[in-house]
Amino acid sequence: MALSTSTFLYVLVAASVLVLGVYADATAESVLECNPLRVEPNQNISCIIYVKDSTQDPTSRFSLGDFSIYAIPVVSGTVVTTSTPVVGADLVSIWFTVSAATGTNIAINVYTSAGVAIRGSGVAVSVLVWPATRIGNISCTADNFNSAGALPLRASTMCTASVYGSNNLAAVVRPGDIYLTEDHFAGTFVFVSGSAQLVFTYTAPNTIVSAFDAYKLRVTLSSSNVLYSTSIPMAYPVLPATSVSSLQCTGVLRTTCFISAQDNLGPVVYQNASFSVAFEALSDANSDWATSTSQFNLTLAAGTTTNIEQLSWALINNNQISTQRVRAFFVAPTTGARTEIVGSPFVFTAGVAPTSATVSFRGCADKYVGIGNSTTCTIDLLEGATGDSRYYTVSSYVSAKISSPLVYTAVDPSGAGTPILTFTYTAPSSISVRTEDSLSVTVAGSAVLNSPRRVIVYVPAAAVVTDSTNENRPGLIALGMSFFGSWLCGGAIIFWRRQQRIHRVQLARVAREREEFTKQFQGVVEEHHTFATAHGASFADSAQGSCTASFEGGEAAPTPPSVQMGSSVPVSVPTHDILGDIGRPRSGSTTSSTTTGKSRRSDPAE
Question: At the topology level of CATH, where does 246-350 sit?
Fold first, then answer.
């Protein structure tokens, strides 16, 4: 009996299965694979068990009960959800998922019914913590950095930082969880990812408002308000400049200019080959500008940043103040054509006007100068003061001759090293006697430092002998002596007459005092005489008794003189002693009177 086609195919498949061992039992040679290994909370991790027999060939001869699945979280108490395993569409695999609501690490183990772990068992997967509480160090790629390790304007870099949550586990950060900023509000950020690691790109701006040294990138977590930052050195791109570059100048007494190199997008590194500088002077005659570049020493120096070059200059011969202008050009790299840049030209005054504090009068070579002779005098110019003689005034007290104009020398040959002005001083010939001249230097009406200076102008001996003015000297001396002698004689006469008047007044006062004293003395004598006459007897007895008593003891008492009542008693008075005191110098100006007891003031003429 012939077999049908379907029966034949069934027998063929069955035989193939037997030969290939498809119906062999599942063994520990089965393989476990899970993907992805890191998910956010409540996201599923898909796992597949590839069932294999002992020869590691796929087999469908198994049941779901032949395998045991264990999902063990690292964080105790974490709820892990494992889905019900299902047989795959290929009949030789088992599918299931694992998830957790909170962050944790999970170890997924699969065992056979015999308790043997299959291959790949124990795979570790992570459920990230959310929200994140901490960010690690921020590092940025250096692919676009220059050789100095700086990020040029317009370039980009990718930055990464690990993200952690509670229990120091890996966490996830979402775009709304962070704030990305730059301290100078320069550049832009792009969020890339935040699973266990924050990834973002930073692109530097084309231009900046003000110069700074580094970009300061800051990351802030909204959940903790903690700030994390990193710095990247800032640099300017090395690109060709264009005519949009600019010239900026500052300063009044001394002008300093800066060239800022730029292209159409922003600043670039300054390159000398891209620029040229020229000077022009304004002509007083026709008000035209003429080239004067050869009059200046131009100095180029690097500016504060690499896109800026500083220009400074000094006059080679600083002997005149004039109006000048500086011009800056962009030079095309291929054709060499020059184009004036923005801000050019700049008009300035060449030379520094002197002041009394920036000029010093050194003095003259000779301090003593004979009449008609000359000497050289020197003025020191300090702090770049101009040598333009129109600003200086030299004056002499004796009208000495001053050479004009003053001579400017850029470097003092004596070794001082400063610019100087010199002039010739010629003493006048009209001076007949030795004279001290005061030589002064002024600027705008003010005396400069160490001004004025003394110069002694003397007359040689030969000139003194022939000087006709010497003949008049005796007459001048006599005139002076007569003038001052008359004053001295007049004073002496006035003093003598005053002394004579004082002497006469003193003599008159002495005479009056003698007359008054004589009258007082005569009154005393008459009063005593009257008293003696009236009481003569009793006076005599009392006197005798007194004398007798005093001489008791054997000595005889002297006999008192006999006084007759009514008789005169002569009295001896030492008038010469009393009168002799009259007219002598007295310590006071008041004379006491015995008779009247009153005080008499001295004569007003005394």
Answer: Immunoglobulin-like (2.60.40)
